[in-house]
Write a structure and sequence with these properties.
The protein has 267 residues and is mainly α. It has helices at residues 3-14, 27-43, 50-76, 78-87, 94-122, 133-162, 179-194, 202-234, 238-246.
Length: 267
């Protein structure tokens, strides 16, 4: 398997965005990551190690959970449907849709490329239990990120059932205002770090860095969009004003409380 095959897989799965524009970077994103991981497991089935199997399994769990969660939320939640209608317009020109589709697929390629690079390097020469320090740390961060993201989504769903029109500030949301985005950053930081010992060419470094920086930008853009929306919905509530002044927006213990002034983070 090579980079072009991964790119084609990402294109095929994320093409679900032509049904609904937002699916390019939501449902299509999650399922594309899972699809790439399944293809990697099949392609390298004769030379897998515990580490590469673990990374692919984390991708599958992450992608299916994320894609399934987003799809179910849209189908079941009337308020979320209204939010999509109001904030994300589907009146996008065909040329722009194609450009977004290709860009998203390329980003998904870059994000998962470190696993491909490791698998190709270890073909025929690695024992099953071979594990370096960066891979071990990467697996730990990936697992932590998936758990944080899943727990954050679960806690938010539970709180919204109790008080649909109130902002969530309990559980993980006491530590950071966007814990699901923080979990996402943990996951992809782990993927990037896992490949540091095996990046052997400028192209590999470029793709890995692009993937990490790309998803980091997307997460901070999402945090800015959420901050603007919550300011509009809850800005009149004194408790919310105190919450945003005392709770970091993305990374726990890092005193960054707002990103809305950074207009280059396209919201």
């Amino acid at each position: 398997m090579n980079l072009s095959i991964i790119f084609l897989i990402a294109l095929c799965i994320s093409a679900v965005g032509f049904i609904k524009y937002v699916y390019f970077f939501s449902v299509g994103y999650g399922f594309a990551i899972s699809g790439i991981a399944i293809a990697l497991l099949i392609s390298f089935r004769g030379s897998l190690t515990a580490g590469t199997i673990g990374m692919c399994l984390f991708f599958i769990v992450y992608g299916l959970r994320l894609g399934g969660y987003l799809l179910l939320r849209e189908l079941k939640s009337t308020s979320y449907k209204d939010l999509l209608k109001n904030e994300i317009k589907d009146h996008v020109k065909p040329g722009a849709k194609i450009a977004i589709w290709v860009s998203c697929a390329f980003l998904y390629l870059c994000q998962t490329a470190p696993v491909l690079f490791r698998m190709k390097q270890q073909t025929g020469e690695a024992s099953f239990w071979m594990m370096d320090g960066c891979l071990a740390v990467g697996l730990l961060l990936m697992c932590s990120g998936i758990l944080v993201e899943a727990l954050a989504d679960w806690q938010k769903s539970k709180e919204k059932q109790k008080a649909p029109k109130m902002f969530v500030h309990t559980g993980l949301y006491q530590m950071v205002r966007c814990p699901n985005y923080f979990g996402e950053l943990l996951l992809w930081t782990g993927v990037f770090l896992s490949g540091i010992p095996i990046y052997t060419s400028p192209l590999e470094w470029i793709l890995a860095v692009l993937g990490f920086l790309g998803i980091t930008y997307v997460m901070f853009s999402g945090a800015r969009r959420l901050e603007l929306r919550q300011d509009k919905n809850y800005g009149h509530i004194p408790e919310y004003q105190q919450y945003v002044k005392s709770t970091p927006i993305m990374i726990p213990f890092l005193p960054m409380y707002s990103v809305k002034k950074y207009k280059w983070l396209v919201a």
